[in-house]
Amino acid sequence: MAADTENATERVTDLLAAAVAAVGGAERTGQVEMARAVARAFDTGQHLAVQAGTGTGKSLAYLVPAIAHAVSAGQPVVVSTATIALQRQLVDRDLPRLADALTGALPRRPQFALLKGRGNYLCLNKIHNGTTGTTDPDDRPQEELFDAVAATALGRDVQRLTKWASDTETGDRDELRPGVPDRSWRQVSVSARECIGVTRCPYGTDCFAEKARGKAADVDVVVTNHALLAIDAMSDAAVLPEHSAVVVDEAHELADRVTSVATGELSATSLGVAHRRAARLVDAELAERLEAAVANVSSAIHDGTPGRIDRLDDELATYLTALRDAADRARLAIDTAPTDPKAAAARTEAVTALTEVSDTASRIVDSFVPAIPDRYDVVWLDHEGGNSGSVSAILRVAPLSVAGLLRTRLFEHATTVLTSATLTVGGTFDTMARAWGLAETTWQGLDVGSPFEHAKSGILYVAAHLPPPGRDGTGSAEQLNEIEALITAAGGRTLGLFSSMRAAKAAAEVMRERLDTPVLCQGEDTTSALVERFADDPQTSLFGTLSLWQGVDVPGPSLSLVLIDRIPFPRPDDPLLTARQRAVTAHGGNGFMAVAASHAALLLAQGAGRLLRRTDDRGVVAVLDSRMATARYGGYLRASLPPFWATTDPVRVRASLERLRAGA
Ligand code: SF4
């Protein structure tokens, strides 16, 4: 190691020790190893993927080297998270404590800021000059607002938000108490593309989004989310302040979040908005042409069959092409540079909506040009049910892979540290590295392990004697008997992770009839309220699906048993994952292992990760899917889980759970 890198690494080790001492913690080997590796990555420019199990203290292990690097480089380090919970933890707890702890050891007090997307802040130009607050936000002038809609909830929200605009310091939606629905918020905010630009905007100097960005430019650590990181990487305009180092926490979510940002959509609602915004700004003939094109595409997708589309039928192709052309013509007919800022706001909104329609229609049509194995984008149709029983049809287009995008737009510009408690799949970083596009760069993978002694603290029980799960998604009679026996032995204390809501509800219904201990099921209250009740009463069990697999953090005796009803393979009708699987197979790979099995492995690892949250936690992860023991891919899935002591013996597991219950 070069002497400078060695010095930087030693310096970070000392700073970490000072920080840990200041917050009253103890030195943890994995934390020190990770902090040193992060410092080396920043110093050498080599990307780093680091897996750090629960309890490692990984946020300090990257924040300390991030602060040290930012202070010496004079440029912020960007830290990106997938969830608001982690964002809050960093900004409200970890960074203030670290700033206090490190001030004496650094030339100055470290500074940090939270930066969100433009749509999270009030837009003063929209409030004062836009189409704010109309019942249909796109076709009624603001003057009509208060009389006509004051009585409606939307009107009341907008009046409140307009008043709040003169009281708030930040204009940040998260500081509004109580909050407002998305529809109301949209009346007072703009997306980055809808902003008319700070230099043209009469409110540019007071703009909340600009102030937040300005503040972020002068700090050492900018905390943001994966979506904004992706938008910054994808857009030519800088969204985040100039930076050359990034930490991606909850990195197992990165590819999915970037895919969401890169997904285009056409629906009757979005097309209607574009048409209404444009209709009052273009001549009657253009408006009618656009209206007809919108109506044709809306009705074609309403009547279409949901699912992946591999071949674009001639009728839809014609309608999409006509839509693209009509949107382009209308867009070109709108003058976006009027002197009046009120007119500029309405025109920028119309042009943005038309550009999105045109770009997406064109992207969908073009995506079918290459042969299937060489396609870059996947197209599918969703029919989503609304609360009123109505169905909304949405045509979506998403990239098959975001690896190329991340490689060229993120990794080539910034040294990136990617971290999570679960990054290895089947025992290696390869799957993740390929999905991120890291595989073709210079990078290092590091697993700093976990402070838990998994083999002593936890049991992996695979119910190998059960019949393989059926196709209908709900549990067999034998599986329900097994669930009953295990929860009885544990005395409640069970988190049931099911592969579908239907299976979770069916099992909860049966268990409520059979057990003396309470069973809660996701959907009966907010998930956070249910998790709180589950944590407060050890006898209570909680059943649910996807968000529980990833988001439950309940240390102590309330959680002694994690039940997994079946291996969480993707749904066979998942358009994106099935297309990815097909593409891998077409290029000579094993599509099932590369996509379906690795998706399941990652979720299993996250589900199993709910069990041990503190070093004194004990318990059982029970997988009630015998394929885990019998199928060829079973070994790969087991290798993705923490190294628990493993058994297939139901009698021993029940005895262990009874002992745990007696000792609790
Ligand atoms: S600069 Fe953009 S976001 Fe800010 S007030 Fe003006 S239009 Fe709104």
TrEMBL record:
<dbReference type="GO" id="GO:0016818">
    <property type="term" value="F:hydrolase activity, acting on acid anhydrides, in phosphorus-containing anhydrides"/>
</dbReference>
<dbReference type="GO" id="GO:0003676">
    <property type="term" value="F:nucleic acid binding"/>
</dbReference>
<dbReference type="GO" id="GO:0005524">
    <property type="term" value="F:ATP binding"/>
</dbReference>
<dbReference type="GO" id="GO:0043139">
    <property type="term" value="F:5'-3' DNA helicase activity"/>
</dbReference>
<dbReference type="Pfam" id="PF00270">
    <property type="entry name" value="DEAD"/>
</dbReference>
<feature type="domain" description="Helicase ATP-binding">
    <location>
        <begin position="17"/>
        <end position="327"/>
    </location>
</feature>
<dbReference type="InterPro" id="IPR045028">
    <property type="entry name" value="DinG/Rad3-like"/>
</dbReference>
<dbReference type="InterPro" id="IPR014013">
    <property type="entry name" value="Helic_SF1/SF2_ATP-bd_DinG/Rad3"/>
</dbReference>
<dbReference type="InterPro" id="IPR027417">
    <property type="entry name" value="P-loop_NTPase"/>
</dbReference>
<keyword id="KW-0547">Nucleotide-binding</keyword>
<dbReference type="InterPro" id="IPR006555">
    <property type="entry name" value="ATP-dep_Helicase_C"/>
</dbReference>
<keyword id="KW-0347">Helicase</keyword>
<dbReference type="Pfam" id="PF13307">
    <property type="entry name" value="Helicase_C_2"/>
</dbReference>
<keyword id="KW-0378">Hydrolase</keyword>
<keyword id="KW-0067">ATP-binding</keyword>
<dbReference type="InterPro" id="IPR011545">
    <property type="entry name" value="DEAD/DEAH_box_helicase_dom"/>
</dbReference>
<dbReference type="GO" id="GO:0006139">
    <property type="term" value="P:nucleobase-containing compound metabolic process"/>
</dbReference>
<comment type="similarity">
    <text>Belongs to the helicase family. DinG subfamily.</text>
</comment>
<dbReference type="InterPro" id="IPR014001">
    <property type="entry name" value="Helicase_ATP-bd"/>
</dbReference>
<protein>
    <recommendedName>
        <fullName>ATP-dependent helicase DinG</fullName>
        <ecNumber>5.6.2.3</ecNumber>
    </recommendedName>
</protein>
